[in-house]
Amino acid sequence: MEGGGGGKMGYGGHHHHHDTAKLLKAVSRTVEPRNFGIGLVAGFLIVTCAYFSTAKFDAIHIALVSPDARNAAAGIGTPVSAAKASNQRLDDLEDALSKLGSKAEVLDKDDDGKILPSPETDSGQSASLGNTRKDDTFASGGGGGALLPPLSSEEPANSTQEQGGLEDEELQVQDAIANSPKKSNNGSSSPAVFHSDPATLPVPPVQQIPPAQQQETRASPVQQIPLIPEAKQTGPEQSAAPWREWKPLCDLASNRRIDWCELDGDVRVHGVQGTVTLVGAAKAEEWRVKPYPRKVDTNAMRFVREITVRSTTDAGAIGPEAACTERRDVPALLFSDRGYTGNYFHAYTDVILPLFLTAKQYGGEVLFLVSDFQMWWLGKFLPVFKSLSNYDLVDLAADNRTRCFRHVQVGLTCHSDFSIDPRRAPNGYSMVDFTKFMRTTYGLPRDLAVPAPNARPRLLIIARARTRRFVNADEIVHAAKKIGFEVVVSEGTHEIAPFAEEANSCDAMLGVHGAGLTNMVFLPTRGVVIQVVPLGGLEFVAGYFRSPSRDMGLEYFEYRIARNESTLTDQYPPDHPIFTDPDGVKSKGWDSLKEAYLDKQDVRLDMRRFRPVLKKAIAHIRANKLQ
C-alpha cells in the first residue's frame, strides 16, 4: 500500500509538472518575448500612476483638514455649525484642487525657497490669546522679534476671540502697519506711498508640517494673509457680529491740537442754535467743542464759537424746529476761521492745510460750514475754498435753517503744525501734494526749480518791515548778485496771488524766522529755503519751517546768527541775562521770550560768515539744471 500510494503520488506530481511544461511551451509559441516585456512595463506604469494619484489626494486632504483639527484640539477658535464647517471644507477642497500646482506661497520663505516656521514663543514677551495659548505674533527678522503693538482702544481685545485666532493676528498686522515709526533719510520726509515689506509681517501660528506635506500646504488658500486684511463675511449664525466697544461721536483725547466729531446717518445742523444732531442713534449723548486746532491755547480759543454736538434716539425729542428745511447728499465740514488766523502762518497751519487734508478727498463735492465767518479773511483765501468745494461758504451763525446731511465732520483733520503725516492722510496726501495744490489754485507755472537757459537763479529776500529786519539788506543783495543770483526783495502784500507769482518765479528764498517764510508753499520743488535764526536759543521755533520745507521737497539751510550779528548788542551790555541766561528769559513764558528775542531784535548778517551758505544754495540750484 505504501508503495502503491507512493507510486500514485509520484505519478500525480509528474503529471502536474508535465502539464505546466506543456502550458509554458504553448505560451512561448503564442507570445513573443518582446511583446511580453512591453506588457510588463505597461502594467508597472499603470500601478505607479494609480499609487501616486491616490497619495496626492490624501496629502491635499490632510493639508486642508489638519489645521482645523489641530486648532480644535488646542482650543483655538470658536465652534460653528456642522453644516457650515462641512461646506467650508468642500469649498476649500475645491479651491485647493483648482490651485494645485500654483506657485503661491503662504509662509515667509528664505532665499532657497524653504518655508520658514513661525517664530518661537518662549521669549517671555507674548500675550495670551483666548486664555489658551501664547500669541506667536512677532515681527520676523534676525535674532529675536519685537512684540507688535496691542490692538487700538477702538478695537477691544476680546472682540476678536469670537472670530478666531487668525483674524486677531490680521488686526494686529493692520495695527502694526498703521502705527509703524516714520522713517527718514538724513532728515528728509517720508515718501507718499508706503509699502510694507512682506518680510516684516508675522506669519500665522501653525505647527511645523512634515516635508512631505509642505508643497501641498503652500497652495492651501485658507492660510493666505492679505497685506491689508479684508472684512470677514459672517454667516446667519454670526449676523450679530463680534461685540465692539461703543464709539462716541466726538474724540477729545487722541489729538493734542483739536477736538473733532464725526456723525453718520440722519444729521441735522442748525446754524443759529449752533447744534449738530444725529437723529435715531443707538445712544443719546452730548458734547461741546470748539472746532479750531489750538484747543490748549486759551488766548486763541476765547473767541471761537462753541458748537453743541449731540445724538438722540427719538426725533421728537429735539423739537419741531429740527425738521429738515434742506437736505444735502454731499458731506459737510464745520470749522472756525477765528483764533490766530490773522497771522499768515497760522492761517495756513490752522485752517488752510487742515482743510486741504480733510476736504481734498471729496473732489469738490463737500459743503463748508464756517462757524465764525470773517468775510475779510475768507475773501483773502477765496481761491482755496473754491478749489476745494463746488458750493458757496455757509455763514453758520446767520443760518436759521435746519440743514440735513448724511455725514458731518465737526473740526478739521490735523496732524501737526504745518505738516502732514502721509501714513494717516486720506489717499496718502503729503506736503508735496499740498504745494502742488497751492500752485494749481493760483495758476503758477513752475513745478521745478530749474532756471531757464542762460538765466541766473532767482533769490527772493523776505524783507520784514518792523521786527527781525535785515539791517544790512543792501550788503546782502550785493553779495548774492556777486555769487550769481538775480535778487528780488519783497515783504508781500495783503493780496496773495501777486506775491505767490513772485515767489514761484524764484528758485530760492531767504528770510529771518517769521510768517513770511510760509510763502515757501509757492516755491517750485527742489528750490532752496534759507532760514536765519535770531539770537536767543530759538532753534525750537525754527522747527516750524525746518521739517515742513523738507517735506515739500525743498533744500533747507539754517543759519544761526552769532552775538555780533544781533542788534541786541546795541541795547544791552555783554553781561546782561539776555545773552548769558536765555533759558531764564524763556522760563518766564512766551510773552517774555517774544518781547526779548522776537520783537526787539534785528539782524546784521556777517557776510564773510554767511557767504558760504549762499554759495551752497546756488550750487544746489545749478545741480537741478544738470539733472
- As residue ranges, the low-confidence spans are 1-17, 56-90, 93-244
Tally of contiguous helical segments: 17
- Percentage beta strand: 5-15%
Radius of gyration: 38 Å
**Oligomeric status of the shown chains?**
single chain
Overall pLDDT, averaged?
73
Distance between the termini: 119 Å
Work out the number of β strands. 17
Structural class: alpha/beta
Major sheet summary line: 10 strands, mixed
Helix fraction by DSSP (H/I, runs of at least 4): 25-40%
- The coarse silhouette is globular
What does the model show?
With 627 residues, the chain is α/β, with parallel strands linked by helices. It contains 17 helices and 17 strands. It has helices at residues 2-30, 33-74, 82-98, 165-178, 211-218, 298-301, 344-359, 375-380, 382-388, 431-441, 473-483, 496-504, 539-551, 577-580, 582-586, 590-599, 607-626, and strands at residues 128-129, 133-134, 250-251, 260-270, 275-279, 285-289, 307-312, 326-327, 332-335, 367-370, 394-395, 402-410, 458-462, 486-490, 508-512, 528-533, 555-560. Strands 3, 4, 5, 6, 7, 8, 9, 10, 11 and 12 form a ten-stranded mixed sheet that branches. A five-stranded parallel sheet has the order 14-13-15-16-17, sandwiched between helices. The chain is globular, with a radius of gyration of 38 Å.
